[in-house]
Amino acid sequence: xxxxxxxxxxxxxxxxxxxxxxxxxxxxxxxxxxxxxxxxxxxxxxxxxxxxxxxxxxxxxxxxxxxxxxxxxxxxxxxxxxxxxxxxxxxxxxxxxxxxxxxxxxxxxxxxxxxxxxxxxxxxxxxxxxxxxxxxxxxxxxxxxxxxxxxxxxxxxxxxxxxxxxxxxxxxxxxxxxxxxxxxxxxxxxxxxxxxxxxxxxxxxxxxxxxxxxxxxxxxxxxxxxxxxxxxxxxxxxxxxxxxxxxxxxxxxxxxxxxxxxxxxxxxxxxxxxxxxxxxxxxxxxxxxxxxxxxxxxxxxxxxxxxxxxxxxxxxxxxxxxxxxxxxxxxxxxxxxxxxxxxxxxxxxx
Length: 350
Prior knowledge:
The longest helix is centred in the middle third of the chain and has 30 residues, at about 130-160.
């Protein structure tokens, strides 16, 4: 259980404001400051995280979630933890770095950004000359770069995807791929934020996203807070929305994309893709380039995390199937929007 101190609590989430900041440095720069997303939407709780136990717990328990945000937080968390060991000799620093990095890496298996960020900091350390203090400075600089790049990535995805959203478009989204899931304005929600700022009057339908309700707890809260017209619906109502032509496109994020374009995202995404194809509605995936895992040929190679059976209300002793993600085949994806380009099928990210 995350036990880092609460820095501030706010309960009024109704006023339209700029997107929230999910992960940043504390004011004194000694801790990583996060929004504890487990408390939303009832409370906006901000915490400062400093230890490896707190970093791992925050990722494992979904206090921090969303593939890009996990990657940014992992990098900043690793750099923060290693700062406290900066006085150690280089050999000891590197040994501790490997141990801490392995613990953070093991927290969530599906989101490729986590391992990508950890590997980038390890490469930084191995290519930096000097003692522990110089290594710590280099790690911090690299973590800062990852966060800055994530913010720019979100903006770029939004700009590239914006032409796909006509004025008055009705968009269905799933889970949370917004500011809470990144360091910037989000991936799937980035073009929605930009469209709203430009006066296009986008209407967003948000699936509740069982079992942990990231749609109703996070996306609906985030969009309402920003003043974007938002309608919350049950996951099982998606077929009816699409059947009655209430939706112009489906726009979701991804936690890992295979070389052939198969995309892993929050459980329920695959079903939306099937429904969208049946009803002739474009199905778009928006994710940073770092989410593409070219080492995996297809979605069959993407590890799928099984969540705690206790997350479901079920009779005691019954078998529970509770995958956190599913894989949408590339054949059902109309386009994949990254920070570099809008990719159309057939996909080949090798």
